[in-house]
Amino acid sequence: xxxxxxxxxxxxxxxxxxxxxxxxxxxxxxxxxxxxxxxxxxxxxxxxxxxxxxxxxxxxxxxxxxxxxxxxxxxxxxxxxxxxxxxxxxxxxxxxxxxxxxxxxxxxxxxxxxxxxxxxxxxxxxxxxxxx
Length: 132
Prior knowledge:
The chain has five helices and five strands, in the order βαβααβαβαβ. The protein is of the alpha/beta class. The protein has a single domain, classed as DsrEFH-like (Hypothetical Protein Ychn, Chain: A, 3-Layer(aba) Sandwich). Strand 1, helix 1 and strand 2 form a beta-alpha-beta unit. The protein is globular and about 40 Å long.
């Protein structure tokens, strides 16, 4: 029998270069937090490109335009929701190094801190991990 823990903390790991998946990760994080779940987001791999100030050039399929047409939340709005809801947001230091992204290139629309993969996993080892 599988034991369900309905009071779990959640760690959402965003790794994909697909903008829609990144958008979904932030939507999921803000939605979970809105229902009083503890949520951390770890942005790693190619998802780090979407926390840059000039992120739109990395949205190869121009999903952000479709989101605008459908009146769905923009990435800027999702950053604001996450900030207001106090979603804990972190980025992978190693990924930034690998992608040659400087910390000064990161958006200031969200409170985001660097952390290692080991540290984020260790601090969330009792909760649920969602990999997107």
